[in-house]
């Protein structure tokens, strides 16, 4: 099973988002067939809670945040939009896919929803998977993939090397 995570603390989320997007864009520009979604760094933000996911196969963007208004004190994930993004990403997954990148294994995934089914499908197809995992969800990630999951450092070159090794020359 070729699956790896980049584990991060809460304040490192934006940096890991940018790192995953950078890696995805680089691999896609090199001709890799990708599936999954990354948080697009290009979208303008009015608050830290706004999030747009970009489907890696089509480039389509889906806004993930419910609009709560200017006086709201919390963030709210639009779960319907997340499931739309999952459906879009999963539709492009096939055995010719070289790599699946998912920006988060978060609360929805720990509850058995979100991108969890796509990750399972990729593993069943023997497609390599790279995922961002917030420290608070690490135990759930371990239960999902097994007790000794591969965790990569926040180093672009080492992550790219893992991607190339995980894919191998057969694809």
List its salient traits.
globular; 6 helices; Rossmann fold; alpha/beta
What does this structure look like?
It comes from Hyphomicrobium nitrativorans NL23. Pfam families: DUF2478. This is 3-dehydroquinate dehydratase. The protein is built from 6 helices and 7 strands. 37% of the residues lie in helices and 20% in strands. The radius of gyration is 15 Å and the shape is globular. 33% of the residues are buried. Strand 3 and strand 4 form a beta hairpin. The chain has one domain: P-loop containing nucleotide triphosphate hydrolases (Rossmann fold, 3-Layer(aba) Sandwich). It has 171 residues and is α/β, with parallel strands linked by helices. Strands 4-3-2-5-6-1-7 form a 7-stranded mixed beta sheet, sandwiched between helices. The protein has helices spanning 13-29, 79-91, 107-110, 116-124, 138-145, 156-167, and strands at residues 3-8, 34-39, 52-55, 61-63, 99-105, 128-134, 150-151. The model has no long low-confidence stretch (mean pLDDT 89).
Which percent range describes the beta-strand content?
Answer: 15-25%
The count of DSSP E runs of length 2 or more, i.e. the number of strands, is: 7
Q: Based on CA inertia axes, which overall geometry fits?
A: globular
Give the helix tally: 6
Based on the coordinates given, report the CATH architecture: 3-Layer(aba) Sandwich
State the fourth-level CATH superfamily: P-loop containing nucleotide triphosphate hydrolases
Assign the structural class, choosing from mainly alpha, mainly beta, alpha/beta, alpha+beta, or little secondary structure: alpha/beta
Organism: Hyphomicrobium nitrativorans NL23
Protein name: 3-dehydroquinate dehydratase
């Amino acid at each position: 099973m070729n699956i790896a995570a980049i584990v991060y603390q809460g304040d490192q989320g934006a940096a890991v988002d940018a790192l995953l997007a950078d890696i995805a864009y680089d691999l896609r520009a090199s001709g890799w067939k990708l599936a999954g979604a990354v948080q697009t760094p290009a979208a303008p933000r009015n608050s830290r809670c706004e999030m747009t996911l970009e489907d890696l196969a089509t480039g389509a963007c889906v806004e993930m945040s419910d609009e709560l208004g200017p006086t709201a004190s919390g963030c709210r994930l639009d779960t319907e939009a997340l499931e739309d993004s999952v459906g879009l990403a999963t539709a492009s997954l096939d055995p010719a896919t070289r790599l699946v990148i998912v920006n988060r294994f978060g609360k929805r995934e720990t509850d058995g929803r979100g991108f969890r089914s796509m990750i399972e499908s990729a593993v069943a197809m023997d497609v390599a998977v790279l995922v961002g995992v917030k420290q608070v969800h690490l135990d759930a990630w371990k239960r999902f993939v097994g007790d000794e999951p591969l965790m990569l450092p926040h180093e672009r070159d080492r992550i790219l090397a893992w991607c190339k090794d995980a894919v191998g020359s057969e694809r």
